[in-house]
Design goal:
Layout lengths: L1 H16 L5 E7 L8 E3 L2 E2 L7 E3 L2 H6 L3 E3 L5 E4 L12 E3 L1 E8 L3 E9 L6 E8 L8 E6 L8 E5 L31 E4 L7 H6 L3 E8 L2 E8 L13 E2 L9 E4 L5 H4 L3 E9 L1 H4 L2 H7 L4 H6 L10 E12 L5 E2 L14 H11 L5
Parallel strand pairs: 4-7
Antiparallel strand pairs: 1-16, 1-19, 2-8, 3-4, 5-6, 6-19, 8-18, 8-20, 9-14, 9-19, 10-11, 10-18, 11-12, 12-13, 14-15, 15-17
The structure holds 2-acetamido-2-deoxy-beta-D-glucopyranose (5 copies).
Amino acid sequence: MISSKLSVVLGLLALPCARATPYSMVYEYAGPSFFDGWDFYGNFDNLTNGDAIFVDSTQAEDLKLAYVNDAGNAIIKVDNVSTVAFNEKRNTIRINSKDHFDVGSVWITDMLHVPFGCSVWPAWWSQAPNWPVGGEIDTFEGVNQVTMNQMALHTEPGCTQASPVQSSTLVNSTDCSFQANSNQGCVVTTPSTQSYGEGFAQAGGGMFVTEYASTGISIWFFSRSSIPSSLQGNASSIDTSQLGTPVANWPTGGCNIGNFFKPQSLIFDITLCGDFAGNAATFSQTCSGTCYNDYVVGKGSTYDNAYFEVQYVRVYGANGQNTTISAAPMSISRPSTKAVAGVAAAAAALGLASW
Ligand SMILES: *[C@@H]1O[C@H](CO)[C@@H](O)[C@H](O)[C@H]1NC(C)=O
Ligand SMILES: *[C@@H]1O[C@H](CO)[C@@H](O)[C@H](O)[C@H]1NC(C)=O
Ligand SMILES: *[C@@H]1O[C@H](CO)[C@@H](O)[C@H](O)[C@H]1NC(C)=O
Ligand SMILES: *[C@@H]1O[C@H](CO)[C@@H](O)[C@H](O)[C@H]1NC(C)=O
Ligand SMILES: *[C@@H]1O[C@H](CO)[C@@H](O)[C@H](O)[C@H]1NC(C)=O
């Protein structure tokens, strides 16, 4: 039985070196095939009342609103070449991943540029198809000329942020219920002006890491110069315990992740005005004039910065688990709503939405 003894000894020897790398890459959206893994919404923004048309994949290609540039990066943008007449909407993009990712997943996006400017409302986020059932995780979101990213969860009633372990002290709200505070969600602001807008681009962009684990949901933001070496290059496996304190954290103590969250579809979208960016009080904080009349209408040059440039999106699954729900059929609607008006639409959609 020398061999079995030997293997025990080898196993023991291997332990200190074989540090657990809990997550392995399961999908990479990158390069020429970046857009293959997504569905295009193909309808005007009937979710958040934006003055935007989320074009279908054919129009997106024809109008060059979603394409892979010469550097091999995905561009997702607002139409900045068309003149929009009064009472019309402007073309832009909303895409959601065909695959859904269950608890035990991490998604990372590396971006060089994020959309910003008056009337612009971009987000990189995720949602379960029967929202608010199954929850929503907003990793990146901002409006108009704000300078810092905001992160949030939106859930059914009963989920709150309690005892987080996070580096941000900018906590805006702790009740994640879509019924509380006009569906503001439990919001944490990233305390860095390199996390949004011009500051993000000037710093060479950066990386957002979202961990959806049974112990809690966590988000890390790394500006280009502070990306940890373990995430540089082609990291086929990652260990989130090595990433330091997350900028936002919602532990399962205040929110039972298993109860409130279901497999998530990843989403990039850019809408214009609508319930959040177009809210008069919010708009006037960083922009002048009227959201629709003075920006959406007319020439598009105001949207020259309204684009995502994405080097990749990578999804990781917990080792030993299959956390990918492959190519789930597109549901009829997945409303993300920030205001009361949208909640009514969301409620109306619930009966229709399905896997
Ligand atoms: C959240 O709080 C931060 C810091 O006080 C503030 O700058 C930001 O505007 C707030 N965000 C919202 C959506 O209220
Ligand atoms: C990273 O590794 C994956 C899996 O091995 C591979 O499919 C992908 O092309 C690599 N990406 C880059 C940018 O090298
Ligand atoms: C539209 O914006 C892009 C950057 O997203 C810029 O390169 C281009 O020059 C703009 N087009 C026009 C007609 O302004
Ligand atoms: C994971 O499970 C899904 C069904 O939900 C299946 O389609 C897929 O092939 C599985 N992936 C692996 C790697 O086993
Ligand atoms: C939005 O439009 C799509 C496509 O017409 C439709 O299927 C969906 O039910 C609409 N959603 C809402 C909330 O009105």
